[in-house]
Amino acid sequence: MNTVGMLRTSNKPRILARTVAYICQYNKINFFYFSPEDVDIRNKKINAQVFKHGKWVRKIVDYPDIVDNEPMKISNKKIYSSLKEISIFTTNPLGGKNKVFNLLKQSKLFDDVLIPYKLVKNIDDILPFLNSYPKILLKPVFSNQGRNIVAITRKENKYQLINDNFIKDYKYEELIKHINQNYLNPAHICQPFIESKTKEGYPFDVRLHVRKNTHGQWEKVKIYPRIGIGRNITSNISQGGAISPIVPFLKTNFKNNWLEIKNKLELLCKTFPSRFESLYNYPLDALGIDLGIDYNGNISLFEINTYPGQQFFYAEDAEVRVDYFKYLLKIKLLKDQN
């Protein structure tokens, strides 16, 4: 049968879907695209879009062997549950940042890159960090593409709040009021601020983009820095950041130890994903691992994302993605035979 369906909220297939369709055709995998409203739960049929002769055309199909899914929205829970009765899903959830960091901390496997953190329930969770570190970071528990992230510094009796667009001074009482109004709901976590900045003073992080391959093993797709041009804190591309090839970036910003840093990043691509996946009782398919590097070349873990973006390297991502389809199709065949 060898069928794969790409499930996305949007009813319009985009570049990734078209790229995956071409590679699936080459590998003799039947591929189609669909959205939640295309699913007929009662009859277990899908009004899918199939890529033929350079165009997407509608066709009624059965549930696929594999579903390349985006993270589930609660409104689509019944549809996902129905599909899972027959199909294997590629993407499983990690949970919010607090859950992820708790798992990392409890495992003791990531002490080399883990930054201290605390879930913010009230102002008393923040003040000890401000007393211990010159600058701290507040970010939402659930990923928000770099939005609503702020840094706070303390200078004598004044506090400075910094986001990507402005820097503002607060007195203690004003700061408490502002935090209570803006950073307790939705929940945030608090961490020391890691100065990961270019020589020009722009914030950056390094994304390790990894995926499972045709053997079900983790494989590097891309390592690239994301630079927050004109930003105070974040380097997220969706918020106006830029990317760069990793080698010239490291040579420019870390002249004396650039190769050592690159080797560490390459090693993390090989070792980090399998260690991280061992914390879950279900498989993961892809990770975006975001790292900061300070002026001395020390590497710190900023965030881990499932369902990482690939807008600058669709082909490289799609090739490994389809390799993983082939692996899952073998698993599905064995499962059906038993």
Q: Order of strands side by side in the largest beta sheet?
A: 8-13-9-10-11-12
**Integer average pLDDT:** 91
Strand content: 25-35%
Poorly predicted runs: none
Task: Give the termini separation.
Answer: 16 Å
Largest sheet: 6 strands, antiparallel
Number-wise, the strands total: 18
Assembly context of the chains: single chain
Give me the number of helical elements. Answer: 8
Shape: globular
Helix content: 25-40%
- Judged by helices, strands and strand pairing, the structural class is alpha+beta
Radius of gyration: 22 Å
Q: Order of helices and strands, N to C?
A: EHEEEEEHEHEHEEEEHEEEEHHEEH
Can you walk me through this structure?
The protein is α+β, with helices and mostly antiparallel strands and 338 residues long. Helices cover 30% and strands 30% of the residues. It is built from eight helices and 18 strands. The protein has helices at 15-26, 77-84, 97-107, 127-132, 172-182, 246-253, 258-277, 314-337, and strands at residues 3-7, 30-34, 39-40, 45-52, 55-62, 66-69, 88-89, 118-120, 135-140, 150-155, 158-162, 167-171, 188-192, 204-212, 218-227, 242-243, 286-293, 299-305. Strands 8-13-9-10-11-12 form a six-stranded antiparallel β-sheet. Strands 16-15-14-17-18 form a five-stranded antiparallel β-sheet. The protein has a four-stranded parallel β-sheet with strand order 2-1-6-7. Strand 11 and strand 12 (167-171) form a beta hairpin. Helix 1 packs across helix 8 (314-337) and helix 6 (246-253) packs across helix 7. The protein is globular and about 70 Å long. The chain starts with a strand and ends with a helix.
